[in-house]
Write a structure and sequence with these properties.
With 316 residues, the chain is α/β, with parallel strands linked by helices. Helix content is 32%, strand content 24%.
């Protein structure tokens, strides 16, 4: 490993040849396919792509929260230290915080906000009174003018935006350096999505230096994220800054062209079936500039521009 690669491992989250395969009765499904990439420290990175491309599975692998029937191969590192399912779970809450998707599903409807925030604070090993005080402080910091009332409330008594802020408070409870937010605006209207963006930005005031935001919400990604990673069929095809403004990979260009603001330009063909592993570039069957080599070999990662990494033979 080169000195630059070693330094990269030390600063941020690095995955090397990471694969996640679900062993199911009907057959194996490869959700993450030999991904090697780096999410830099001190940045908000957006992880984007179509439904089913492996974004959330990659996030769950980093947190050690995959189900027992998932088989994981490859290596993961946080600031140079190996991340295994066991070590990731131990670091969850203290070094890596999680903001899950769908607040109404993620918050326990039978427990008060107080009980759920206090549970999030358990890694700090505080006494009950200290946890209550910390819970009040968290709610105040996340924009609740009456924290006592919110602590007594059950999730169904709060609006969607308030529930999302409670989840953000729980994720930031132990001041982790990293936050993984999984579809934080899913199911929310435009006004609430704007509130969530402001709440995520405020996490930097609570000791959170870096974030990985998994999202379908491209306006959120465009306004929130410093850098972007684009996934397709279990692989990261493009990574870097300015991707939404100047995409390099043919898939990224086609993906963005299909958006409403770009005229719904349809993408030809269909994505590989779940679990299907193609020998070459996974986008080759749909790519307008593919050559025979694209169907036979996997493109290596290259950097055609400073700060960008792309896997495409046109740049090799």
């Amino acid at each position: 490993m080169t000195g630059a690669a070693e330094q990269q491992r030390i600063n941020g989250i690095t995955v090397e040849e990471l694969s996640v395969i679900f062993r199911l009765p009907e057959g194996d499904v490869c959700a993450v396919d030999s991904v090697s990439t780096h999410f830099p420290e001190g940045k908000i990175t957006g992880l984007i792509g179509e439904s089913g491309c492996g974004k959330s599975v990659l996030g769950l692998a980093l947190l050690g929260l995959l189900p027992p029937y998932a088989s994981v191969a490859g290596e993961m590192y946080l600031d140079g230290s190996p991340l295994t399912p066991e070590t990731a779970r131990k670091r969850l809450g203290t070094e890596i915080g999680l903001i899950p998707q769908s607040p109404s599903d993620s918050l326990n409807p039978a427990r008060t906000v107080s009980a759920q925030l206090q549970e999030a604070l358990l890694p700090l090993k505080l006494g009950r009174k200290q946890r209550m005080m910390k819970a009040r402080e968290l709610l105040s910091a996340f924009g609740f003018p009456e924290p006592e009332r919110i602590l007594r409330a059950y999730p169904h008594e709060l609006s969607g935006g308030m529930q999302q802020r409670v989840l953000c408070a729980a994720g930031a409870a132990c001041s982790p350096r990293w936050i993984l937010a999984d579809e934080p605006t899913k199911g929310l209207d435009r006004d609430l999505r704007s509130q969530v963006r402001e709440t995520l930005l405020s996490l930097r005031e609570h000791g959170v230096k870096s974030m990985l935001v998994i999202t379908h919400d491209l306006p959120l990604a465009r306004s929130l994220c410093d850098t972007m990673a684009v996934m397709y069929a279990g692989q990261v095809l493009e990574l870097g800054s300015g991707i939404l403004e100047k995409p390099l990979h043919p898939y990224t260009r086609s993906f963005l062209a299909a958006l409403p603001e770009n005229g719904f330009q349809s993408m030809p063909g269909v994505a590989p079936k779940a679990g299907e592993r193609l020998p070459g570039c996974p986008f080759a069957p749909r790519c307008p500039i593919a050559v025979p080599r694209c169907h036979q070999e996997r493109p290596p990662a290259c950097s055609p521009e400073p700060g960008k990494t792309v896997r495409c033979f046109q740049y090799v």
